[in-house]
């Protein structure tokens, strides 16, 4: 099971005590923190990774 939330706009992938995956994709625009990100979720493998949309300088 997984839960996607984005209230904080900070990218994060973690698991809780019950093993549920908690996913915050961050923000696609980078408006708040200057770090536009998304999360790619592989549903068969139940793995997620954060992907930066723009290279930081």
Gist of the model:
The chain is an all-beta fold and 57 residues long. The protein contains no helices and five strands.
Amount of beta strand: 35-45%
The shape, in one word, is globular
Estimated radius of gyration: 12 Å
SSE series: EEEEE
Report mean pLDDT, rounded to a whole number: 90
Which structural category do the helix and sheet elements fall into?
mainly beta
Query: What is the overall number of helices?
Result: 0
The assembly state of the depicted protein chains is single chain
Could you give a short account of the major beta sheet? 3 strands, mixed
Distance between the termini: 36 Å
Kindly give the count of domains: 1
Helical amount? under 10%
The side-by-side strand order for the widest beta sheet comes to 1-3-2
- The total beta strand count reads 5
Low-confidence blocks of residues = none
Description:
This protein has strands spanning 2-4, 12-15, 21-24, 37-42, 47-52. A three-stranded mixed sheet has the order 1-3-2, with no helix packed on it. It has a two-stranded antiparallel sheet with strand order 4-5. The protein contains no helices and five strands. It is mainly beta.
């Amino acid at each position: 099971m997984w839960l996607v939330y984005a209230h904080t706009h900070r990218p994060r992938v973690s698991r809780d005590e019950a093993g549920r995956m908690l996913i915050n994709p961050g923000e696609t625009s980078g408006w708040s923190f200057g770090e536009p990100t998304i999360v790619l979720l592989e549903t068969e493998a139940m793995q997620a990774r954060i992907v930066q949309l723009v290279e930081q300088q």
